[in-house]
Amino acid sequence: MSFTADARIVSRALDRFRLQAARRHSPVVVQPPIEELVRQLDLDGHAARGGLSGRRLAAFLDCYLRSATRLHHPSYMAHQVAVPHPSGSLASMVDGFTNNAMAIYEMGPSAAAIELWVLNWMIRKVGWQPMPYPREGAGEAPHAGGVLTHGGSLANLTALLAARSAVAPEAWERGTPADLAVLAPAESHYSIARAVSILGLGSAAIVALEVDDAGRILPDRIPAALDRVRRSGRRPMALVANACSTALGLFDRLKEIGAVCREQGVWLHVDGAHGASALLSPGTRDLLDGVELADSLSWDAHKLLRTPTLCAAVLARDARRLDGAFQQEASYLFHDKAQPGVDFIHRAVECTKAGLGLRFYTVLAALGEEGLARYVQSRFELARAAYDWMQSLADFECPFAPQSNILCFRLRGDDSRQIAIRDTLIADGSFHLSTAEVHGRRFLRATFMNPDSSMDDVRAMVESIRLAAGRS
Ligand SMILES: Cc1ncc(COP(=O)(O)O)c(C=O)c1O
User: Fold this and answer.
1) How does residue 137 score in pLDDT terms, banded at 50, 70 and 90?
2) How many CB atoms lie within 10 A of CB 138?
3) Which of 37, 122, 170, 245 stands the most exposed, by the fewest C-beta atoms within 10 Å?
């Protein structure tokens, strides 16, 4: 069986999968027991026999797709994972086929060119100075820098590593000094706490910033917090702000926070893994007002930019700071070489790095910048419309006005009721929601990622929740 014939089988199966989901002809999620799936997929048999191709490939794929979660279904509202645009999915295939591990230029010049272009596109959105091409004199004029990473968690780790190297350049060789502290709101994504521990600071080095009722940093309390850190004999290594937070999707006030950090000489890292995409649309851009004051920013394309997993970026206002993050030597990779491009390996945790830029670039080129901006704005507007409508429902509580495409709410009742509702919806395959704990209370959480979800779906979701509550 030829590659082209198998590719046709795969593309037909995927198109059917997408269309059935988009037309609501299949459940949004099914979760058979894992041992049953191992058997149904005949994993032992295929591995022993080999030759998975043609009709057997088609049957295998049918079985695989039956228990694949359908992000293309308008009832998919669970997690912050992009509903991939088909152009991006094809790009993932091209990348998988060419397998250009492009961290060094010679392993993927096209992929490296796209990575540089994508990073500069993002850098311009932030309002920073883009990276010049190497032969234009990289490193001479101050400019921003970046690298694409396999996920926002690695982007956050890389940013904090750059912050550590700015504050304690000796740390790479001698280890992390014990007096460093990282200030962050408790609402920060767990990858921040992980990064702090991975960096050897220990999670006790995290100082919780004072926040408002919705978990947003109170900028006027930052100087006192910094003062307390310094008086306790510690050095602030970085302050982390959310754009936006994971649970509630709310944005910290970056302009005020940035001004305080500048004044106090503290590295500001903005975790924009989810919300930095609001920079695209004039209608949502203001949410990130002041982001240009940050020292570093994480931004995931595989969340709000319709890009298949993974494609994240870590950007730094001053490229030299990012270059300082790693000081590794590997003689077979890192050496002066006459080459017409750039290596990204110096800035990355990863050694083998996929051509991540292509999967985002093709989406951008398919939808156009305006199309992508309209998508982001429309998802934010849907969350707002759902919130406004829920205010009129006596049996629902929806206390936090959304600023993004994330909305938390609950059917009146206790925490276990919310969990039982979600489980029932998943079991009947009607809606895929997540939950989040806010102020010690469990909320249902809708993340409007699917471009086809509408208020009709929100109304149907509310009806399904009421039915599920009656049954659970
Ligand atoms: C604010 C924030 N930062 C970081 C991450 C981690 O990103 P990734 O899943 O790409 O590692 C998430 C994931 O949801 C997030 O919401």
Assistant:
1) low
2) 14
3) 170
Q: What are phi and psi of 238, to 5 degrees?
A: -165, 160
Q: Which residues contact 4 (CB under 8 A, 6 or more apart)?
A: none
Tokens of 283: 């209608």
The strand pairing partners of 275, in sequence order, are none
pLDDT tens by residue, 325-381: 987 666 666 667 778 899 999 999 999 999 999 999 999 999 999 999 999 999 999
Whole-number Å distance between alpha carbons of 210 and 222 = 8
Enumerate the β-bridge partners of residue 409: 444
Q: Quick one: tokens of 225?
A: 């917090």
For ligand 1, mutation pick of 156, 190, 300 (most atoms within 8 Å of CB): 300
CA dihedral 416, 303, 126, 368 (to 10 degrees): -140
pTM of the model: 0.97
Residue spans of alpha helices (H) in 152-253: 152-167, 171-174, 190-198, 222-231
* Coil/strand/helix, residue 405: coil
Q: What angle do CA 89, 92, 94 make, to 5 degrees?
A: 115
Place of tokens 């707002």: 384
The answer to whether the CB of 303 falls within 8 A of the CB of 274 is: yes
- In three-state secondary structure terms, 434 is strand
Q: Please identify, by atom number, the ligand 1 atom nearest to the C-alpha of residue 309.
A: 10
First and final CA of the chain: distance in angstroms? 50
Q: Which residues line ligand 1 (CB under 6 A)?
A: 80, 151-153, 156, 189, 191, 246, 271, 273-274, 300, 312
Q: What is the percent of the chain with per-residue pLDDT over 70, rounded to a whole number?
A: 97
Q: How many CB atoms lie within 10 A of CB 470?
A: 8
